[in-house]
Design a protein that fits this description.
heterodimer; A: 744 residues; alpha/beta; 26 helices; B: 167 residues; alpha+beta; 8 helices; elongated; binds iron/sulfur cluster; binds FE2/S2 (inorganic) cluster
Chain lengths: 744, 167
Amino acid sequence: MVSIEIDGKKIEAEQGSMIIEVADAHGITIPRFCYHKKLSIAANCRMCLVEVDGVKKPLPACATPISDGMVVKTQSDFAQESQKSVMEFLLINHPLDCPICDQGGECELQDVALEYGNDVSRFSEKKRAVVDEDLGPLIETEMTRCIHCTRCVRFGREVAGIRELGAVGRGEHMEISTFIEQSVDSEVSGNIIDLCPVGALTAKPSRYQARAWEMAQRDSVSPHDCIGANLHVHTLRNRVIRVVPKENEAVNEVWLSDRDRYSYEALEESERLLKPMLKHNGEWKEVDWETALERTASKLNMMVQTDGSEQIAAIAHPSSTTEEMYLLQKVMRGLGSNNIDHRLRVSDFAWQKFEPLHPELGVDLSELENLDACLLIGANLRKEQPLASLRVRKATRYGNIASIGLYPLYHNFDIDHEIITDAETWLGQLAGITKYLYQNQGDSDKEQWADAMDLEGLETLLEPITVRDEHRNIAEMLLKGEKSSIILGASALEFSYAGHIRLLAKAIANLSGSSYGFFPHGGNSVGAYLAGSIPHRGPAGADVEQDGQHIKDLFEQGKKGYVLLKTEPGKESVIADKARESLEQADFVVSMTCHADDEAFEYADVILPVASFLETSGSYVNVNGLWQDFAAAVSAPGEAKPAWKVLRVLGNLLNLKNFDYVSAEDVRKEVKGRLSAVGDRIKPKWQCPETLPRDGFAPRPVNMYQIDGWLRRSPSLQDTALAKGQEILKRPRLSPFHNIVGGV
Amino acid sequence: MTDANPQILQDLLSADGFEKVETWVSKYPVERKRAAIIPIMSIVQEEHGYLTQELMDAVADYLGCPKIAAYEVASFYSMFRLKEAGKYVISLCTNVSCMLAGSGDIKKWFKDELGISPGETTEDGIFTLKEVECMAACGGAPMLEVDKQYHENLDLDKVASLIRELK
Ligand code: SF4
Ligand code: FES
Ligand code: FES
């Protein structure tokens, strides 16, 4: 700690911090363009010049480390003179076309120019103009406005790990460009829009839709992955104009993935449903809510009576809110059926009794960047959890990463040990690592684990396994790392022996002193477990009298009636064909959904239009168990209603008890109330599998822009190279270490 | 769009040229080998006359760096040519010292006598004029460079006789 003085204010600060960081922390404003707290220091705009006592020249506050006794003046005549000169210089080539610029009203250049700029320009020469770039369907460019701060270039190099933009040319001819006509294909590309301090990079889908000052800002949470990125939703006259990140260091830092940012477009898509509909003698007709719900209630009642409650089933998409899934299971269980599930992409349920209360990552998201060692199993983080991938990338500055998967994966970080295996030997690979760890445990360590694990069984299981070099390397990496994690991704969870993978991964974690966890599908799998949207446990992990059937059986055996919540199983399930077939053959299918296509009209009998994620209040629980609730940013179009309300009325029509909720918050309180009573009830012991089967099967991974109905209907996202599978996969890896200290 | 392939560069160069490339790379630590990008691009340009996108991509792939990094370097340094050039490339400095000492007149001379402005090549394909920034020869301003040879303290007569000689 050293003491310095800024504008007469005495401040104690960490040695080595830059003047601008200290000033920011104490609410002292220094103008800046190139400096950004999440990027390396470039010091190329010079807007942040300040006066330091004893130094004759003005110094850039973003690149000047503090030292004891330093006296800084940000407002002295000398400092202001310098700042004004830089401002004048930066405006020389800027077109000053604010009236037709989307950034107008929220532009850093505008704000700073207002304070530091001259009213009249002394520059009467010709301004330069720059030919625009076509960066693809998400980002609009107006490169003449660029002030060359290079934030966008540094973002690619340092944060995203994909370098597509560069500073081409020199001096007055320098341009920010991809040089060759090429779109920017990173899954987090939209962040450069937020970073750009001027209007050079703006959001393409919302171009010219509204001015910054007309829009209202509401907060929400992204439904597309279990990170739960925080959103600012900008609305105008009950329309969502755009979505930008809301800073939350523990969750999404200052970033959003492109799907978090652009999926709002689906809200106004043409397949959007505006009225309840009924199929009558094969003909669809629009009806009022009462008719639709009464029909649904009477049909469900009738089926329970004639076919038995085990003949009805409910499937929710894991991006439904916790409240919706709670009420859905309450309706089902009220009707006497435990057939409820959300695990559309799981095919192994053999070990479901051994699951914890809810899926867990085992390590805080914010800690991902500090891991010394991390073993990814079947995790294509960039595509599954883009924002977690940025964190893990940061860990590779000092930590090591290993990956075991079924396909060559193109990460945006360096992998130190990689095993690409086939489905047959996947379990064997994990067993190899387990065996090495087990053999290298001292007896006292074994004693320690004897309590939590069935070691005898493990010994027998591992007997025929050969430990190879790559197993040893990964095991040693985990042992060496003080903070180490085992993280499972989608292909591990979708594998036909997912249970075995989890047990072995857990064993590796235990034996190597690592944390263990996984990223479940969708935005709210955690909420689904807590709400009891699973057949084998009620809300808050409550025991059920008799387990319902899991989703695979529900589709494979075929049921008479299905209740669907925000899901299109024919596009989402791992057994999509089977799912479609069962739905088509069922007597009665009611679908609560935002959109419907021909397929849905084919199998459904009643379609209830519900509110999308930005149109309802509710909550998502992220992979760290963090509850995040939100209110509707806009109201649903037409007669669409929030699904929790629909389910409340349905509950009442079915004469089920306790369905008198006034708000989503009431529902949430009820779930939380039940959770507080769980205690330690669910603490499954580790069980050893008896064999390591070799006939495993892994379904094909789904494109990251196909995982839910909203993404499938976001036109701009669907237009990207990523959606079309046209992106360049193999790229040079940019190690964050070299890139943060400034490399190419 | 093709994936990175470090082999392509070898195919695009003579055995000799590729050997030179490897010598340069061996001077740098492996994880920093991209530091050799400037000498390598010079070798490639020497063999091919100018740098096409294909050649720059090959260099980037060979060094394991992003392609845009190669474009940045090639477009930054004035000794790299991105377009086909004449037999002689004349780099005329128009930076401050040379400007004060009359480089503007020389630029005009090229326009009047040879009909070329910076960036252009004579119709017979012999001369290409390039405008460059300070070549660190301010003491001899105004100056130009042809074929790695500096010509300093120029006036219009000297320029005219130089061009006659080259022709
Ligand atoms: S485009 Fe924007 S972010 Fe990129 S260098 Fe220009 S001003 Fe900076
Ligand atoms: S913010 Fe300091 S030089 Fe740009
Ligand atoms: S200004 Fe021409 S050589 Fe320096």
